[in-house]
Amino acid sequence: MSERKVVPTNCRFCGYQCGLLATVEGGKVRKVQPDPSRYPNNAGIMRGCKRWPLITEVMDHPQRINYPLKRVGERGSGRWERISWEQALDEIAAKLADLKEEFGPEVLATSIGGPHTTFWPLHRFLALFGSPNNMGIGQICWNPGIWANTLTYGWPVDMELDPEGTECAILWGVNPSQSDNSLFWHTVKEFKRRGKPLIVVDPRLTGTAQEAQLWLPVRPGTDAVLALGLLQVIVEEKLYDEEFVQNWCHGFERLCDHLTPYTPAYVEEVTGVKGEDVIKAARLYGKNTPACLYSGRGIDQLGLNSFPTHRALAILRAITGNLDRPGASHLSEMPDFIPELELELSEPYAATSPQPVSQEKLLLQSYQGYAKVREQTMKHGKRLPMRYLTSAHPHRVWKAMLTGEPYPIRSMIVMASNPLLTQADTQLVYKALKSLDLLVVLELFQTPTSMLADYVLPSAGVLERPLLETKAGVANIAYGGDQAVEPYYERRPDYDFWRELGLRLGQEEAWPWEAYREALEYSLSPLGYTWDDFSCTGLYYQDNEYRKYRERDEQGNSRGFATVSGKVEIYSELLQDMGADPLPSPRSLSQGNAEFPLMLMSGARFQPYYASSYHQLERLRRMHPEPIVEMSPETGRKLGFEEGALVDVETERGKARFRTRFVPMCDYAVSVEYGWWYPEMKASEPELGGIWLANANLLTSGDFDASDPLVGTWTYNGIPCRVVKV
């Protein structure tokens, strides 16, 4: 009889990697349960999650990809043959070598997503191959806030919501009641229980907003105006921290002049938030310190107004003294261990790249822009991640595939990503993917994207590979842990794919670690930890230090901030130097027209799914069987709908079908569920798993020319639309 053992390991159904205990027998996971000794250190919190109890089902699900597959019919025909890993790797490497020889290294692009893999091995391979074309969703998730906070403070910040020490909290464009099954949502509810002021900014009365003392239902796309309105009240009523502003802020006087138009009355006219509530929110935040201001993905998807909103919120934290202060926020530090930046070899690649004009045209940001910010952060010895913040803009990648301009992209490797569903403008993505000479997908399950691939390779998933999350190197934290079992069937960690492909393409010296665990142990080596040492707790961090800007150097000078002025850049000299707005300046957006009179939000997520993942699981599907479009009862009445009606939501790009749900929210706005497809439908053309039915990205556009010029953010929230009964 095989030995039965209990193994500490981690979930990977979202980015939190909660600690689990896996009962293993005969190389199979028989049972999983929360591990109260590791994050979130509370089994009760974990029992609120619907996903991790299904791990054993997912690990041996009949729809899992277990062996390498090669297309044998027409692209999208659904006809495959099982091949060996060696054959797949040999053929992919040979094809890439031929394409590189014909077109140059820019012929390859990659697409990443999350959260069931690690990205630095992909970036390392690309650097060695010579391609700048790594692509993801950073422009509408994470990058805008990282960029804005770094330009303002000299480095990103982490927020601190402490039920005991925080006196006021604003949650802006974030809905942990649906997006978070872990400690944060528990913390929000505990904060509310203590009776402290909680303000939620969201067009919808979400589960999070229902906990708030004050809900600010901002019209989609107008968040920057609301943020500037809060600043106007705080400045007008002198609720700011005068000592901090005088000593540590640059450009406050210019801000005061800039805020003159943003009166409560004007803000109400533009945003729909009552002027009296703007004043109330400003006073609650300004008078109750320390105060925490959390922002989420909702802000990241405002297109031209994403960056101005992040900048206004960064200024709001600063002038109220809620920067680098316990219970409010802390300026993060570079890791004590080896950061992703070094593991991905981006710096040597950038230093030796010939910097062709085509690269400057394609990249989201030129290295010149990245270099300007790096010059400032290096004043404190800090280096931002490079590949994330210089990633290729997806719209330009798709266009290059179709036009060959500014250079041909004829191949793509997709890892833990489903761009046919998750990237803007599905029709454009479809045409681009269909045009390729080589499409490789590494995945757990077949997806609409993998259905178009030439090769589909089985990724090791939850409990089958070690995990290490490091926030891309912008904070001194690492969390994760070891795998519970060896991968089932012929699944492999994605690291193995990139290493083996690299070896076949002449990269032998750059891949010294045969196994992924060895590479992770190397990354922790400066700490003096072995991988087993780290896995015992699954967490490394140092206690936060505060007011670091006051620290003195050897010459007795204050450390200050890693910016041009050495202070918080309310007025950004660096942005002015880059030809951008030095103070946050919102853009006017269309508020609808006769043809499309409503405003669309396209990024809503609902439990129990994680984005577009896990629609295959019957138990989850029974909990949430159909895609939803939300609208206010008043909007529904004016449109002549009953709740539960089947409707088509239409924009100038296309239409998608949803079931109506009436909720308190802004009038004349609708919110459609993101990431919906139908795995039970045919996994081939023309159905492609129902990609053409209820996919929110049939309604969206990622056009580069209409995107934010600094970050490349396209618009997902605030799109003119109409709703028609089926």
From TrEMBL:
InterPro entries: Acetylene_hydratase, Asp_de-COase-like_dom_sf, MopB_CT_Acetylene-hydratase, MoPterin_dinucl-bd_dom, Mopterin_OxRdtase, Mopterin_OxRdtase_4Fe-4S_dom, Prok_Mopterin_Oxidored. PROSITE patterns: 4FE4S_MOW_BIS_MGD. GO terms for molecular function: acetylene hydratase activity; iron-sulfur cluster binding; metal ion binding; molybdopterin cofactor binding; oxidoreductase activity. Residues 4-63 form the 4Fe-4S Mo/W bis-MGD-type domain. The keyword Iron-sulfur applies. Keywords: Iron, Iron-sulfur, Metal-binding. Gene3D superfamilies: 2.40.40.20, 3.40.50.740, ADC-like domains (2.20.25.90), Dimethylsulfoxide Reductase, domain 2 (3.40.228.10). Belongs to the prokaryotic molybdopterin-containing oxidoreductase family. This is Anaerobic selenocysteine-containing dehydrogenase.
